[in-house]
UniProtKB/TrEMBL annotation:
A GO term from the CC aspect: cytosol
GO BP: homoserine biosynthetic process; lysine biosynthetic process via diaminopimelate; threonine biosynthetic process
Reaction(s) this enzyme catalyzes, per UniProt: L-aspartate + ATP = 4-phospho-L-aspartate + ADP
Classification lineage: Bacteria, Pseudomonadati, Thermodesulfobacteriota, Desulfuromonadia, Geobacterales
Enzyme Commission no: 2.7.2.4
Protein name in UniProt: Aspartokinase
Organism: Geomesophilobacter sediminis
MF terms (GO), sorted A to Z: aspartate kinase activity; ATP binding
Length: 407
């Protein structure tokens, strides 16, 4: 007998019929003799609706109340799934985040899980109850509701699997696994059978939407094997796991793109110590994460300072940057919302030179101008005009041999 944590995303829970389908799958695994904890997302589209309501009622919705609002979607889906399982004759029980409890810090809308006491869950599991837990939500030390950031149910599932030392954590979604790139852009994209935590972390942080980044961080930290697979068929998906020798042999495993960042440039900044901190600190104080950063070569004591932030934080970031720019007597603040970040990821980059050069050559051949570059040990990202997104992804996918026969 194993302890299985399964997570079903919004699309899998998207209608009554689909919830029935999820219940059947859960029942099947339970009938095979497993203890089951099922984590679910809100029905597809529901969280978006709630977010839209928040943005309609206030320009900067209050953080605490925002979480109370957006956590509502999962309350509906856990109740429906638990009802369905009960009507099928199974012992099931829904749990909201605070009932587990999933204890988080107080960073509303992007809370981090700190602790998940397992006593209550263990007692229910011992009685053969299937637990249906609301993903995405938790509770802070003050007893306030928190949410874990969009896509946070993945993290709930992995964290529960870690807390319960589950044997398997299966993330059921609407795709067959992790692909070499977005199959909607590139017909030749292929399912990756096994991928390391490191690569998955990069891909997730780069816009591959299949897993929330924090879920991968959690999985890596606690060594949880995460099986990403489809809820619509029985195919094996992608195993996200510890790196091994085979993985290192691959130069580039995947290509990601993100259209949800915007560029902010502070022009004609005095080039002296402390300026970068003066521009960026207020942003980090406001919990806005800055991604790519470029500072031009100084000319006559002045430079331009450019960075990207998530589209969702754009309004806030711009207001903050304008204030900082004024304080340091910069000339002006320019913005560009039409950018995309294209990235290539692979463990093999560690031991092979020339990957970046090849990437730049491939893009240059298509006349795609690179606006910003950033690299890590296993990743190279570039910012380009968003109109080139699809083209860039396709040519890179081809150039790095991902479009050929399956690896
Ligand atoms: N329902 C939340 C969202 O749409 C959490 C999730 O789906 O993982 O972001
Ligand atoms: Mg998701």
């Amino acid at each position: 007998m194993a302890l299985v944590v399964q997570k079903y995303g919004g699309t899998s829970m998207g209608s009554i019929e689909r919830i029935r389908n999820v219940a059947k799958r859960v029942a099947k695994t339970y009938d095979a003799g497993n203890d089951m904890v099922v984590v679910v997302s809100a029905m597809s589209g529901e969280t978006n609706k709630l977010v839209a309501l928040a943005n309609e009622i206030a320009e900067f919705p209050d953080n605490r109340e925002y979480d109370v609002l957006v956590a509502a979607g999962e309350q509906v889906s856990i109740a429906l799934l638990a009802m369905c399982l009960k009507s099928m004759g199974y012992k099931a029980k829904s749990y909201l985040g605070f009932q587990v409890p999933v204890v988080t810090d107080s960073a509303h809308a992007k809370a981090r899980i700190e602790e998940i006491p397992d006593t209550k869950m263990r007692a229910d599991l011992k009685e053969g109850t299937i637990l249906v837990v609301a993903g995405f939500q938790g509770v802070d030390a003050a007893g306030d509701l928190t949410t874990l950031g969009r896509g946070g149910s993945d993290t709930s599932a992995v964290a529960l699997a870690a807390a319960l030392k589950a044997d398997v954590c299966e993330i059921f979604t609407d795709v067959d696994g992790v692909y070499t790139t977005d199959p909607n852009i590139c017909k030749d994209a292929k399912k990756i059978e096994r991928i390391s935590y490191e690569e998955m972390l990069e891909l997730a942080s780069l816009g591959a939407k299949v897993l929330q980044i924090r879920s991968v961080e959690f999985a890596k930290k606690y060594n949880v094997d995460v099986h990403v697979r489809s809820s619509f068929n029985e195919n094996l998906g992608t195993m996200v796991t510890k790196e091994d020798k085979d993985m290192e042999a691959v130069l580039v495993s995947g290509i990601a793109y993100a259209k949800d960042e915007v560029k902010i440039a502070v022009m004609h900044v005095p080039d002296k110590p402390g300026i970068a901190a003066q521009i960026l600190s207020p942003l980090s104080d406001a919990n806005i994460s800055v991604d790519m950063i470029v500072q031009n070569v100084s000319e006559q004591g002045f430079t331009d300072f450019t960075f990207t932030v998530p589209q969702a934080d754009f309004k806030k970031a711009l207001a903050i940057t304008k204030e900082a720019a004024e304080a340091i007597s910069a000339k002006e603040v320019l913005t560009d919302e039409n950018i995309s970040k294209i990235s290539i990821v692979g463990l093999g980059m560690r031991s092979h030179a020339g990957v970046a050069t090849k990437m730049f050559q491939v893009l240059a051949k298509e006349g795609i101008n690179i606006q910003m570059i950033s690299t890590s040990e296993i990743k190279i990202s570039v910012v380009v005009d968003s109109k080139y997104t699809e083209l860039a992804v396709r040519v890179l996918h081809d150039a790095f041999g991902l479009s050929g026969e399956a690896k």
